Amino acid sequence: MSSTHEHEVEVAGVRHSFRVQGRQVPALDRIDLTIQPGELVTLAGPSGCGKTTLLRLVAGFMQPSEGAVRVGTRPVRGPGIERGVVFQQPTLFPWLSVQRNVELGPRLRGRSKQERAETAHRYLELVGLSDVAGHRPYELSGGMQQRAQIARVLANDPEIVLMDEPFGALDALTRERLQNELLEIWRATGKTILFITHSVDEAVFLGSRVLVMSPRPGRIVLDEPAVFGTPGHLVPPEEIRALPDYVDLRERVRVAIQQREPAAGGAPA
Ligand SMILES: Nc1ncnc2c1ncn2[C@@H]1O[C@H](COP(=O)(O)OP(=O)(O)O)[C@@H](O)[C@H]1O
Ligand SMILES: [Mg+2]
């Protein structure tokens, strides 16, 4: 029953502080979190509450001040091929075509030319960019660049995809379209996704599970299943936002985000 899956993400007793002008400033309070394979976990919280810090710890870009991050039973000591990261701003090489950008990971791992091309085609198709494969990133809109970045990350076939407000810089219509696409990709690939957002609506719409973090230092103050976008939930996306259960959860998430927590170690009782 309790056997650890190879790609389960475990954040155990994690605290993190940053050294700012000689002082330790806490960014994350005690975080305990297990993400099961195949979950699409959305993490919402006010700006500055530590969302990116948590994602960077799971990505292995830095080590927690206290506690541990594990994938399966292996401690995370740095970035790994089983974890792909999608940033808010697309990170594409401007001198490479979209296709070459997507092929880069497979190329670095020594895949044959044909295999690379097949992989790129598959993922460009999945994100709806087949017809601009030969274009340079600067010829694409922001939304298309973000799609290309997602294809580039998926082409490495990571089990776990870490996304830090990937749609935050997009206009509302593009954002909604990409949200629907992400759900389709998730259904098609079964990836484990940790998706960070400061949008309540995005968190509730996308998540199979929604987490809310308190203001700094971040703690998880809400952790609830949200089945609206999950496979087998047959309501079309445009009707989901009107469902009573959806409206209800969105309200609970909204209240949780606005909750003021007393500052740790500082505020008088
Ligand atoms: N490299 C850093 N050095 C010092 N403080 C940092 C650093 N990165 C983040 N912080 C601080 O940690 C807190 C959490 O930041 P962050 O994780 O980026 O929050 P969020 O992504 O939720 O907006 C903020 O107060 C931020 O100023
Ligand atoms: Mg952030």
Describe the structure.
- With 269 residues, the protein is of the alpha/beta class.
- It has helices at 51-59, 98-108, 113-126, 142-154, 172-189, 200-206, 237-240, 244-258; strands at residues 9-20, 23-35, 40-44, 66-71, 74-75, 83-86, 160-164, 192-197, 209-213, 220-225.
- Strand 9 and strand 10 form a beta hairpin.
- It binds adenosine-5'-diphosphate (ADP) and magnesium ion.
- Adenosine-5'-diphosphate is lined by residues 18, 20, 27, 45, 47-53, 216.
- Magnesium ion is lined by residues 51-52.
Q: Helices and strands in order, then pairings?
A:
Blueprint: E1 9-20, E2 23-35, E3 40-44, H1 51-59, E4 66-71, E5 74-75, E6 83-86, H2 98-108, H3 113-126, H4 142-154, E7 160-164, H5 172-189, E8 192-197, H6 200-206, E9 209-213, E10 220-225, H7 237-240, H8 244-258
Parallel strand pairs: 3-8, 3-9, 6-7, 7-8
Antiparallel strand pairs: 1-2, 1-4, 4-5, 9-10
Helix pairs in contact: 2-3, 2-4, 3-4, 6-8
Magnesium ion (MG) is lined by residues 51-52.
Provide tags for this entry.
Rossmann fold, 10 strands, 269 residues, binds magnesium ion, four-stranded antiparallel beta sheet, alpha/beta, binds adenosine-5'-diphosphate
Q: What is the overall pLDDT average? A: 90
Distance between the termini: 43 Å
Fraction in beta strands? 15-25%
| Strand order, sheet with most strands | 6-7-8-3-9-10
What's the architecture of the largest domain, going by CATH?
A: 3-Layer(aba) Sandwich
| Attached small molecules | adenosine-5'-diphosphate, magnesium ion
User: Portion of residues in helices?
Assistant: 25-40%
The geometry reads as globular
In the predicted model, the low-confidence regions spanning at least 5 consecutive residues are: 263-269
- Name of the CATH superfamily of the largest domain: P-loop containing nucleotide triphosphate hydrolases
Q: Sheet bearing the most strands, described?
A: 6 strands, mixed
Instruction: Please give the domain count.
Output: 2
Structural class: alpha/beta
Series of secondary-structure elements, N-terminal to C-terminal = EEEHEEEHHHEHEHEEHH
